[in-house]
Design brief:
The protein is of the alpha/beta class and 293 residues long. Helix content is 39%, strand content 19%. The longest helix has 36 residues.
């Protein structure tokens, strides 16, 4: 697949009475020729992707390839320089287009676990009964019910990330955006939260766009993986993950199919990581030369 490869499909609803399995599916997200520049720096270059409704879509790539920038554009926190993004929102829907789970701690330190999880719903003026039902459900799903009255300073790092996940799901967005949410956690907590995330996602199969540096995590979680090139960020490959669900990470790691897929993706990614390092070394050398009297 070329670096500027696209994966666009026809849009359209099936005719009444037609076999839906044979009909094209309207993408939940359509990204077309997306570009983002910061001055002379090209961060994202002509990225085109379709993401299906309910798909767990994972993005991997070397540092500086524009992964987080792409996610921030999807969230409306950055604007694209060129190209377009279309998000398929059902007509008349009162659900938010997206909720985002950040890499670092993003819950409010002055709010209890319950109030943090309820924040998005309260900002939307959701009825009290809806807030009680949804927040209660997702605190239970993330194992936080007995900590509902606690404040963030009383929680571990893993528990804080569980609060972020509960808040995002309770807000009931069309799309869930996740920027390396488990990167700061120890290995044991990471595995538990990965499995917890998949279990909660399995209840509703929301469309998820998930960024990670870990190829193992990408294969464990994803339906499809976008591998990005070093800067400027382009599409290097789109890799389907044909592993059945539900997935148990301990059992999955023993499967040869898992190891083969991880190896295949890492083999393609390794050159990009090396190229990103060479770019960083060149930039450091240039900066040092500029500062030398």
């Amino acid at each position: 697949m070329s670096q500027s490869a696209t994966n666009l499909r026809a849009l359209g609803e099936p005719a009444k009475g037609a076999d839906r399995r044979a009909q094209p599916v309207r993408p939940a997200i359509r990204i077309a020729d997306l570009q983002k520049t910061f001055g002379k720096l090209v961060a994202i270059d002509r990225v085109s992707i379709d993401i299906e409704p309910g798909e767990f879509f994972v993005i991997v790539g070397p540092s500086g390839c524009g992964k987080t920038t792409l996610l921030r554009i999807l969230a409306g926190l950055e604007t694209a320089t060129a190209g377009s993004i279309e998000i398929d929102t059902p007509a008349g829907s009162d659900r938010p287009a997206n909720s985002m789970v950040f890499q670092g701690e993003s819950i409010f330190p002055w709010m209890t676990v319950w109030n943090n999880a309820a924040y998005g719903l309260r900002m939307r003026d959701a009825p009290a009964a809806v807030i009680k039902e949804r927040v209660g459900h997702y605190l239970d799903a993330t194992g936080l019910t007995r900590f509902a009255g606690y404040y963030p300073h009383q929680l571990s790092g893993g528990m804080k990330q569980r609060v972020s996940i509960a808040r995002a799901f309770a807000n009931d967005p069309e799309i869930l955006l996740m920027d390396e949410p488990f990167s700061a956690l120890d290995a044991q907590n990471k595995v538990l939260l990965q499995e917890e995330l998949l279990r909660i996602w399995g209840e509703q199969t929301k469309t998820v766009v998930f960024i990670t540096h870990s190829v193992d995590e990408a294969v464990f979680l994803g339906d499809r993986i976008l591998v990005m090139t070093a800067q400027p960020g382009r599409v290097k490959s789109l890799v389907p993950v044909p592993l059945p669900r539900p997935r148990n990470i301990i059992e999955l790691q023993k499967a040869p199919e898992f190891g083969e897929l991880v190896h295949s993706i890492w083999s393609g990614l390794r050159d990009e990581v090396q190229r990103a390092r060479e770019q960083e070394n060149t930039e450091v050398a240039h900066d040092t030369k500029e500062k030398t009297p």
